[in-house]
Amino acid sequence: MSLLRDVQWLIADLGFNQMEGNGVRIKLENCGVFDGLDGLVKPGLNALLADGEIVELSETAIPGNADLTIDGTGRTLMPGLIDAHVHIAAATPNLAALEVMSPSYVAHWTARNLSRMLDRGFTTVRDVGGGDAGTKRAQAEGMVRGPRIQTSGKALGQTGGHTDFRGTCRAALGDLQSRHLPSLGRIVDGVPACLHAARDELRLGADFLKIMANGGVATPTDPIDWIQFTPEEIRAVVAVAEASCTYVAAHTYTARAIEHACVNGVRTLEHCNLIDARVGAILKERGAYAVPTLVIYDCLDRYADAIGLGGENREKNRLVRDAGLRSLEIMRASGVPMGYGTDLLGWMQQDQSAEFALRAQVLPAAEVLKAATSVNAEILRRPDLGRVAVGATADLILVEGDPVADISRLTGQGEHIPLVLQEGVVVKNRLP
After folding, report:
1. What is the pLDDT of residue 218?
2. 173-182 per-position pLDDT tens digit
3. Residue 324's Cα: distance from chain center in Å?
4. How many CA atoms lie less than 13 Å away from 408 in the CB half-sphere?
5. What pLDDT digit, counting tens, does each position of 219-236 carry?
6. Is the pLDDT confidence value at 164 over 90?
C-alpha cells in the first residue's frame, strides 16, 4: 500500500489527477434564480444537477428520478460566491508576528478559516499572498473542507515596501525569506531577482503572480503615496507570467500607482481606493480589472485598539477608507469591471460578507452580486463558475428570500444560506 500511495501522489504531482463525477442527480424545484449574469431573480425555475454540472434549467417540472430533490420555494438559487482577494493563512492581523508563528498552527487555523468561508457561501477564493500549493491540494483532495483555491503564493515586494515588516530597527532578513514560514510575501530587488522570484513562485504552484506596487496601511516604512518597483521590474514579472500563460495582480491605492502598474502590464488592480477618472479610463481601455476591498479598512478602523494599530498606520487607513465608496462610483462611471474582494486578516475574516452591505451603499445590489459571481469568475479565468447556466459547474448556494431585494441575506456567517453545493456535492445543508 505504501508503494501505491507513493505512485498516486506522484501522479497528482505531475498533474494527471482528475476528480471523478459524483454520479448523484439533484433536483432543485420552484426556485427563484439569480444567474450571475443579469440583475433579475427569475421566479419558479427548476434545475437538474448531475456529474458536477448543471444539466437542465426549466420553467416546467423536470421529469425523471433524482437522488435528492430540494424544494426551493421562497428561496433563491445563485452561483457559489467567489472572493477574489483573501489571505487564507493570515492567522493574525499582526503581519510581522505572522512571520514567526508556528507553521503547523497556521495550517490548522487556515483549515478552520476555509471551513467558515464555505459556510458563508464562498465556494471559490483567490488568495493573493500566503496561501500555497499544499493547502490548495489538501482542499482539492477533500482533506480540508473549504472553497477551492487559486493562489499567488508569496506576494513580491521591494525592500522597504509592503512585504517588509522589519521597520527601522531590524536590519537583517534572517530566515524571513523562507517559503516555509507563514509570511504573506518575499522581498526582491532588481530585474534578475524579480525574474527569479516570479519563476520560483510558479514552480512552487502559484496560479498567478502578485506584486506590491504601492505603499500599504499595515507596513511600517512605506507611505501610501510611494510607488514601488520600477517599470522594468514590473515588466519582468509580467513577462514571466505571460510566458507561463497567467497574469499579475498588484496592490495599489493611488491613481499614480494604479497607472504605473496597469501601463506596465498588470491585469488586476487590487484596492484602488484613490483612483481618479483619468486612470479609470486607462483601466477600461486596457481591459484591466479592479478588485476593491472596502471591508478591511472599515474593520481596521473599528478594531484599531484591539489589534494595536499605531497612530501613523491609523491615519493611512483612514485616508483609504474615506475614499473607498467614491472609488466605486468613479470606476463604475469609467466602465471598469470590478470584482469582489475583502483582504481581511486574522479573526476579522468573520466580516467577509460585510463587503456586500458596504458596496450596496453606492452600487445596485445586482452589480454587487455579479462582482462576487460572474465578474470574479472572469478574473479567475473560470467561465464555468459564477453563473447558473446549463453546462456550468454546479457550485451553487440556496438563499432564503431574494438577495437582490435584500442583500443582507448574504451577510453574517451564512445564517440565510441553508444549502451550499460544490461541483454538485452538498457541502452544507441546514434545510428542514
Report:
1. 73
2. 655 555 566 7
3. 18
4. 2
5. 777 888 899 999 999 999
6. no
Count CA atoms within 13 Å of residue 228 on its CB side.
Answer: 28
Residue given cell 470584482 in the structure block: 339
* Whole-angstrom distance, CA of residue 157 vs CA of residue 178: 15
Q: What is the pLDDT of residue 219?
A: 72
Cβ within 8 Å of residue 356, ≥6 positions away: 368, 369, 372, 407, 408, 410, 411
Task: Yes or no: say if 376 and 84 are a contact pair by the CB < 8 Å rule.
Answer: yes
Q: How many angstroms separate the Cα of 430 from the Cα of each of 148, 233, 393?
A: 21, 50, 22
CA neighbor of 113 nearest in space, from 94, 132, 91 = 91
Average pLDDT, the chain: 91
- Check residue 162 and give its pLDDT: 83
Strands (E), 74-233: 75-79, 81-86, 122-127, 148-151, 155-157, 185-187, 209-212
Cα radius of gyration rounded to whole Å, the chain:
21
- Look at residues 164, 92, 90, 96 and name the one whose alpha carbon lies nearest to residue 128: 90
